[in-house]
């Protein structure tokens, strides 16, 4: 696990009557099996280096693995937790005891760590303030990026909304046009159906079946398309001499064939 840093502003629940302020800043550096603290109230500063052995001993006292113990300490010192009482009391010789409460399986417990006075309180306070300033700059940059991303998403949402409204308008216009065409076609079909119904009614009123009436209409149309012969009776009676000759020959041939047939029958009898 990589080394992490955190800094929490802690409002003290149990204030030291000797102190004018009830706020401290707790900067923590977290390692896989140990941690260190730097605390300042703006005037003085204190520090604590919890070694691997000390953390392991505390974890064993609470029947916890080291990782679980560190996670719990990080939870309460990395950010002030509501419902927890924090205190920063004088432990003599310039030392301070930082403690906080929490509940575990329905029981309210308290953990505490003793801090030593910083040999260079100005430097320690400056380090805490520098960390807070850097964190504030990072947060400000992140806020700017988030704001820009939000504005971009807002513009994209507005563009999508306008596009959706345009699509809806086009859809409505298309449906209106299609509906108008459909109504026109439907009315045309209804008109043709009414004409057919009227024709059927007229035919039935005359006692004719629709099929027969249709045949008569076809016959009438055929008669109208037939060309009338406009010649005289004399022209119709005129026969071409060659046609007369061919007709006479044909008649003579049929008579001869008939006579032969009859003579053949007499010979056999």
Mean pLDDT: 81
Helix segment count? 6
Summing up helix and strand content along with how strands pair, one would put the structural category as: alpha+beta
Q: Which series of helices and strands comes N to C? A: EEEEHHEEEHHHH
What does it look like?
This protein has about 270 residues and is an alpha+beta fold. It has helices at about 50-60, 65-75, 120-205, 210-225, 235, 240-269, and strands at about 5-10, 25-30, 35-40, 45-50, 85-90, 95-105, 105-115. Helices cover about 60% and strands about 20% of the residues. It has a seven-stranded antiparallel β-sheet, with helices on both faces. Strand 5 (about 85-90) and strand 6 form a beta hairpin. It comes from Carex littledalei. Pfam families: XRCC4 (PF06632), XRCC4_CC (PF21924). This is DNA repair protein XRCC4. Keywords: DNA damage, DNA repair, Nucleus.
Primary descriptors:
269 residues; alpha+beta; Dna Repair Protein Xrcc4, Chain: A, domain 1; seven-stranded antiparallel beta sheet; disordered C terminus; XRCC4_N; XRCC4_CC; DNA binding; DNA damage; DNA repair protein XRCC4
What's the arrangement of secondary structure elements?
Blueprint: E1 4-11, E2 23-30, E3 35-40, E4 45-50, H1 52-61, H2 66-77, E5 86-92, E6 95-104, E7 107-117, H3 121-205, H4 210-225, H5 233-237, H6 241-268
Antiparallel strand pairs: 1-2, 2-3, 3-4, 4-7, 5-6, 6-7
Helix pairs in contact: 1-2
Domain XRCC4 coiled-coil: 127-196
Subcellular location: Nucleus
Domain XRCC4 N-terminal: 23-117
């Amino acid at each position: 696990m990589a080394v992490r840093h955190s800094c929490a502003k802690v409002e003290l629940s149990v204030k030291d009557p000797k102190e004018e302020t009830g706020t401290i800043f707790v900067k923590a550096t977290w390692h896989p099996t140990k941690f260190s603290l730097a605390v300042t109230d703006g005037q003085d500063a204190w520090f604590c280096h919890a070694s691997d052995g000390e953390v392991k001993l505390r974890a064993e006292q609470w029947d916890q693995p080291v990782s679980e113990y560190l996670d719990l300490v990080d939870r309460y010192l990395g950010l002030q937790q509501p419902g927890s009482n924090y205190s920063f009391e004088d432990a003599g010789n310039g030392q301070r005891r930082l403690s906080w409460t929490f509940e575990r399986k329905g029981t309210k417990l308290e953990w505490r760590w003793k801090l030593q006075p910083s040999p260079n309180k100005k430097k320690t306070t400056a380090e805490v303030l520098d960390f807070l300033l850097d964190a504030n700059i990072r947060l400000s940059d992140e806020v700017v990026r988030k704001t820009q991303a939000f504005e971009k998403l807002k513009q994209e949402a507005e563009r999508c909304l306008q596009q959706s409204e345009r699509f809806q308008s086009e859809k409505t216009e298309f449906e209106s046009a299609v509906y108008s065409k459909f109504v026109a076609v439907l009315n045309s079909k209804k008109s043709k159906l009414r004409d057919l119904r009227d024709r059927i009614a007229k035919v039935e009123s005359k006692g004719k079946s629709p099929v027969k009436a249709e045949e008569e209409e076809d016959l009438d149309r055929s008669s109208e398309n037939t060309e009338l012969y406009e010649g005289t009776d004399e022209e119709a009676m005129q026969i071409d001499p060659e046609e007369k000759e061919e007709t006479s020959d044909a008649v003579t041939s049929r008579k001869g064939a008939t006579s032969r047939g009859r003579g053949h029958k007499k010979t056999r009898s």
